[in-house]
Structures are given as C-alpha cells and as structure tokens.
Design brief:
Strand content: 5-15%
Number of strands: 3
Radius of gyration: 16 Å
Helix content: 40-55%
CATH topology of the domain at 28-81: Multidrug-efflux Transporter Regulator, Chain: A, Domain 2
Length: 88
C-alpha cells in the first residue's frame, strides 16, 4: 500500500472539521484540552491521562490515530466523581 502524505494545511482543515462536528453535538461545550493540558491541570503525567481515556474514566474525542481532545467539563466531572469522602 503506498504511503499517503497530507500537507499541514489539509491536516488543519481535517482537525478543524472534526472539532466542529464534536462541538455541534453539545450546546454547552467547554474548552477542548489536549492530554498534556489535562495532565497539567490534574497534576499527573500525560500517560496517566491517556490510561484514563483508554479505560473510559475520562471521556475524550478521538480526532486521529493518537490525537485526543478532552472537554473541560468532562475533566471536571471526572474530578467530582473521584473525590474522596471525609470520614466523620
């Protein structure tokens, strides 16, 4: 199978179109974060965020072979669901 090379401009158009499709599915879409940005926000490494995406703990849109975007609201929901309870 021949290799297909995509120019940077076409890549950006595909990425923009995928983000628009994702945004149209949700009226109150927050900022989209990369796994690196989400990891920085959570104070963990990128690999941990990717593991949580793979196991379904954190919802993310897959935009390419290894390209994910996480809605800020989904990251906040993950934090809320995983808070520990203070013992009385």
């Amino acid at each position: 199978m021949p290799k297909v090379y995509i120019c940077a401009q076409l890549k950006q158009q595909i990425f923009t179109k995928n983000v628009q499709i994702y945004q149209n599915g949700s009226e109150n879409l927050g900022r989209l974060l990369t796994p690196d940005e989400a990891a920085e926000h959570l104070g963990v490494c990128k690999k941990t965020v990717l593991r949580r995406i793979y196991d379904g703990s954190i919802k993310a849109a897959k935009l390419g072979h290894r390209t994910y975007r996480i809605e800020e609201g989904d990251l906040q929901k993950y934090l809320e669901e995983n808070k520990t309870q203070k013992e009385a």
